[in-house]
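Note on ligand handling. Small-molecule inputs were canonicalized before submission; formal charges were left as drawn, and no protonation-state enumeration was performed. Where a ligand contained multiple stereocentres, the stereochemistry in the source SMILES was retained. For zinc ion, this procedure yielded the string shown in the input block below.
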Amino acid sequence: MDEPYDEKNDLIPDTCNCGRGKLRRGVTEYVTKVNGGVLVIKNVPAWMCDLCDEAYLTPEASREIDRIVKDFRDGKLLAKPIAAGEVELKMKEAA
Ligand SMILES: [Zn+2]
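Structure output:
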């Protein structure tokens, strides 16, 4: 899936915040909470760090995600139910 417009790539940093990784085109999953539920958006195009797996969404992907989340919130999106688990992280008190 190569996109020809280069000017948009200027918005994407070519190194990761971790300082060492290189970003390459990939797909990721975007997980967000909507109305107390969890919405998972799969197959999201992003720039991925090859070292720490941090994902940087493309501007187009962010726009699409905004649209999907809005539709989901409005009940206009038919989403497949998924199993989800929620835990709270309990840190041990530092002695
Ligand atoms: Zn990184």
